[in-house]
Specification:
493 residues; alpha/beta; Rossmann fold; 8-stranded mixed β-sheet; binds uridine-5'-diphosphate
């Protein structure tokens, strides 16, 4: 099956233009679109990926497609569906291999499965396509289907890969030798960094950086009262004050000492509005490095207990009061991701093994996913309450969570994963940890950041500026229009 997703984008180009600091980006986009539109020859564009919600790609597409439509382009979004869970286990494996992790022993069984499901998906997508259309296929899941359609139909097809490693390993070689036959039929491909382009696509790929939408619910400005309202509506803080908006039908939950999920304000409100807050928000995934981050926070508190009495109050207090928030999607919404549930179970087991006082200082939060809007607003509010936003990924293709937090002036502590290095200029926009699996190194970096407010504020200002210049949706669309126009003209052939 392939579902056509209706446009979920609420802002028009005019809405952005009304905001002075975004107007320049829109004007440049309009000007470039005017020269590129004739080269697109009125073609329809279909983007296809594997999920309408959860993860970076689903985050990007509504803004990209919504604004392309606003420019007058017939842009559409399809989401592939496959009944066989083994298919997604395989594509997750390929995803991990492209990031240099996992078992690269892929044989005929895997090839047969990938081909069979791709054929079904291709048949479903075909019903939406006509000759002349442009198909943009995101990541490995729908890649096989796109390749088959490119062979069968008179369409133009571009493969967009959001993942990658800046190194060639046995694992990455295994993934690309599996995917090569499906990559080659495409007219062109797009990667997030030049280092990610595999040998088989050398000379046939363009680099486009992802972006964020500054007016989406995830990223738009929020007044203090709105932040407080969202946190209260979503169950993340207690309040005795009446609030204009209503409590969300589904609210956040917090992992309790016995490993069950309970209200996020039990056993007590964890002080989002008052305490120094360190946050990581991601999908539950081992590659996101939640566990070593938790261990680092525990190590930081332990050192405080041992040495803190000798420190002056201004160095001791931020560490004493600090809380760690580890947030991710409601596990009930990711039942199709067994590996994600395993990663969450590991976090649960580690949390249950901690001493009660340390447990109270850590909030493992499940964010409601039933409403995309409520989830986005909660992520937005949480990032805005954070003194330090961490992304301790072992590997990361780009890491939109970091772009989102940089946009909100947060001080970032990132790992040196390739995607994060493209965004965070060390000691300008944030700090980079060399080894995301070394709790000691992370604990020292956290301590330094928590104790140095001026440094955090400088990082936050620089980071916001960096996103404004390099990672907003307007320049992203311009890059796409250029690549599509050049592909249609056969310039990459
Ligand atoms: N995200 C979310 N709710 C959650 C957890 C994550 O909306 O509970 C979003 C997050 O804000 C970001 C995206 O999911 O926009 C994750 O993208 P990223 O590029 O960081 O990682 P990916 O999931 O693509 O590996």
């Amino acid at each position: 099956m392939a579902l056509l997703v209706q446009s979920q984008h609420h802002s028009s180009l005019g809405d952005y233009e009304r905001i002075l600091h975004l107007g320049g980006g829109v004007r440049d986009l309009r000007a470039e679109a005017e020269t590129l539109m004739p080269r697109l020859q009125g073609r329809r564009i279909f983007m296809i990926n594997s999920t309408a919600q959860g993860g970076g790609v689903a985050e990007l597409l509504p803004g990209l497609i919504g604004l392309m439509r606003d420019l007058g382009i017939d842009a559409n979004w399809l989401v592939m569906q496959a009944d066989d869970p083994a298919f997604f286990t395989l594509t997750k494996r390929l995803h991990n291999l492209i990031h240099g992790h996992g078992d690269g022993d892929l044989g005929n069984g895997e090839r047969g499965l990938y081909e069979r499901v791709s054929r079904d998906v291709a048949a479903a997508v075909k019903a939406h396509l006509s000759p002349g259309d442009v198909l943009v296929v995101h990541d490995p899941q729908p890649m096989g289907a796109g390749a088959m359609l490119r062979r069968e139909m008179d369409i133009t097809a571009i493969w967009r890969c959001h993942i990658g490693l800046d190194d060639e390993t046995q694992e990455t070689r295994a993934a690309w030798s599996f995917l090569e036959e499906w990559a080659l039929p495409y007219d062109h491909s797009v990667f997030t960094a030049p280092e990610y382009i595999p040998r088989c696509l050398a000379g046939r790929a363009t680099v486009i950086r992802p972006s964020i939408d500054p007016l989406s619910d995830k990223n738009r400005d929020l007044s203090v009262r709105k932040i407080v309202g969202i946190l209260a509506n979503g169950g993340l803080i207690r309040t005795s004050s009446p609030i204009v908006t209503e409590v969300y039908p589904q609210i956040a939950e917090r992992l309790q000492a016995d490993g069950s999920w309970g209200p996020a304000t039990e056993p007590e409100d964890f002080g989002l509005l008052f305490r120094p807050i360190i946050t990581q928000i991601s999908r539950w995934d081992r590659l996101k490095g939640y566990l070593p981050l938790m261990q680092a926070f525990v190590a930081m508190k332990k050192r405080l207990k041992e040495d803190g009495d000798a420190w002056p109050a201004e160095r001791r207090r931020p560490l004493e009061l600090a809380r760690l928030v580890l947030a991710g999607p409601d596990p009930a919404s990711v039942t199709d991701d067994p590996e994600g549930l395993e990663a969450l179970d590991e976090i649960r087991a580690a949390y249950c093994g901690l001493a009660p006082d340390v447990q109270r200082a850590i909030a493992v939060i499940s964010l409601p996913m039933a409403s995309k809007r409520h989830n986005a607003l909660l992520v937005n509010a949480l990032q805005r309450c954070s003194d330090v936003v961490v992304q301790n990924s072992l590997q990361e293709g780009f890491g939109l969570t970091v772009t989102e937090a940089m946009w909100k002036h947060a001080a970032i502590l990132g790992s040196s994963a390739a995607g994060l290095r493209q965004q965070i200029r060390p000691d300008l926009d944030g700090c980079l940890i060399k080894n995301p699996q070394d709790p000691h190194e992370i604990a020292l970096a956290l301590t330094d950041l928590l104790q140095d407010q001026e440094r955090r504020e400088a990082f936050g200002s620089n980071a916001q500026r960096r996103v404004h210049t390099d990672f907003l949706v307007f320049s992203h669309i311009r890059s796409w229009l250029r690549v599509i126009a050049s592909t249609l003209e056969g310039r990459y052939a």
